Amino acid sequence: DSLVFQSSESPLAPHTHIMVRASVLHDALKSIYNAEKRGKRQVLLRPSSKVVLRFLQVMQKHGYLGEITVVDDHRAGKIVVELTGRINKCGVISPRFPVPLEKVESWSGSLLPSRQFGYIVLTTSDGIIDHLEARQKSVGGKILGFFY
């Protein structure tokens, strides 16, 4: 019972859509969040990018992630992340709104559950850093995302 397709027919239904990758960072954070919710110990993120890696390093610095391993497969690359079970929520803010220094407080008020914990990640002229470090260095930037 082998299936034979004429050139006009497709093995996929005519209305099947193939998802395109909108944002590598969004996919990575969503994978982490979902794996964290399901109680996984580690998660494989692909593709890798410099922005994703820096974002993860900020999360790791604050103890939200364990070890980060980059797998070079001569393509887009993969990242294996050890989870610690501390992430309640993480997400991307799209589009990357410009956030001047004086607006950082209002953004953290609207995104984070309380003043005591949680971080907003900004991309600044000093690199990809969290909002506390940005305030300390007194630089503004564009908002990438948040985690708590």
**What portion of residues is helical?**
25-40%
Distance separating the two termini = 54 Å
Mean pLDDT reading:
90
Shape: globular
| Quantity of strands, as a count | 8
Query: Major sheet, described briefly?
Result: 5 strands, antiparallel
Please tell me how large the radius of gyration is: 19 Å
Low-confidence stretches: none
Helix count from the secondary structure assignment = 4
Q: Tell me the strand percentage band.
A: 25-35%
- Category by helix and strand content: alpha+beta
Could you give the order of the helices and strands?
HEHEEEEHEEHE
Provide a descriptive summary of the structure in words.
There is one protein chain. With 148 residues, the protein is of the alpha+beta class. It is 28% helix and 26% strand. The protein has four helices and eight strands; from the N terminus they run αβαββββαββαβ. The strands form two sheets. Strands 4, 5, 6, 7 and 8 form a five-stranded antiparallel beta sheet that branches. A hairpin with a 2-residue loop joins strand 6 (119-124) and strand 7 (127-130). The longest helix is centred in the first third of the chain and has 14 residues, at 24-37. It is globular and about 65 Å long. It starts with 23 loop residues before the first helix and ends with a strand. The mean pLDDT is 90.
